[in-house]
Structures are given as C-alpha cells and as structure tokens.
C-alpha cells in the first residue's frame, strides 16, 4: 500500500501546509506547471517525487521532468501528463493511446479545476487535483490524496486551502 499526495499547478508557490501533507505521503506526484524548480526540490527532499512539466515550465523543469510519466505502482497503471483533457475530451495528442492502451489511473492538471471521474468507455479513473498555487482564477486551492493498494485506488480525499 502506498499513500499518494497529488498536486498540480503550483506556479512557483509552496508553503508549510503543503509540505506537512507531503510528510504524510509515501510518494508525491506533481501534474505540471511547477514554476520554479525549487518547488520540486523541496518536495523531493521530503519523499519520492514523480512529476511532469507543464506549459509554463522553463528549460530547468523540462530538463528534470518528462512531458508524460507512465508507470505501474501497487498494481495500478498510472499515466501523468499536464494537458490531458478529460473523458470524452482528451487532448488529441494522446487520445489514441488512451483509447488503445488505457491506464487504470489517468492524471492531468492545467485546468485549475479539481475533477475526479470515471471513463467507463475505457475503464479508467481520471483525476485532476486542481491548482494548489496562488496564481490563477481558482477560488480555493486544492490537492488530492489517496492510497494505491493491490490494484485499487482507495481512500480518496480532497484537501482545500483558502486562496
């Protein structure tokens, strides 16, 4: 069993409350728009980090993290990308792969809108943790945490902060 903290769209912002939640996780996943590389440096100093770069990220972040990160953890096939879309509206650059070789858990960021929904057509769960940074239109900053356990996604929680 692994406890996951999922965040996105930090836009160079990190605070002690985010880091407190990071301490409680087994792994931290960042779905892009990291901003300053110091954000991921702080997270990686706490727990193992998996991340992708987003559209605002510079050459340092892009040199450190991939556009797509696909892996299997605790029996769950996971795909993280920044601009992925959502069920019925996937990014055209990845749509074919989603339909022909779907992961069990598809994660993206970019929209700043927290969304968790199934795609019953292909049998995956889509997660977007929203934005935990202070830049953007969101009224509430959000992250997700959950557990992966023997092929299952369990105990999903939404974490909210005032903007």
TrEMBL record:
Gene3D superfamilies: 3.60.21.10
Domain Calcineurin-like phosphoesterase: 3-149
SUPFAM superfamilies per record: Metallo-dependent phosphatases (SSF56300)
Signal peptide coordinates: none
Record-stated family: Belongs to the metallophosphoesterase superfamily. YfcE family.
Name the record gives this protein: Calcineurin-like phosphoesterase domain-containing protein
Lineage: Bacteria, Pseudomonadati, Bacteroidota, Flavobacteriia, Flavobacteriales
């Amino acid at each position: 069993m692994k406890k996951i903290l999922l965040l996105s769209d930090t836009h160079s912002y990190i605070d002690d409350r985010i880091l407190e939640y990071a301490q409680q996780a087994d792994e931290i996943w960042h779905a892009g728009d990291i901003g300053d590389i110091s954000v991921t440096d702080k997270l990686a100093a706490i727990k193992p980090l998996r991340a992708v770069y987003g559209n605002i990220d510079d050459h340092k972040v892009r040199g450190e993290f991939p556009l797509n990160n696909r892996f299997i953890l605790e029996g769950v096939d996971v795909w993280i990308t920044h601009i992925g879309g959502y069920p019925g509206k996937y990014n055209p650059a990845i749509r074919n792969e989603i339909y022909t070789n779907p992961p069990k858990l598809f994660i993206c960021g970019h929209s700043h809108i927290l969304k968790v929904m199934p795609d019953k057509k292909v049998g995956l769960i889509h997660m977007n943790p929203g934005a935990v940074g202070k830049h953007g239109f969101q009224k509430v900053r959000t992250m997700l945490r959950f557990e992966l356990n023997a092929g299952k996604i369990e105990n999903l929680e939404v974490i909210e902060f005032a903007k």
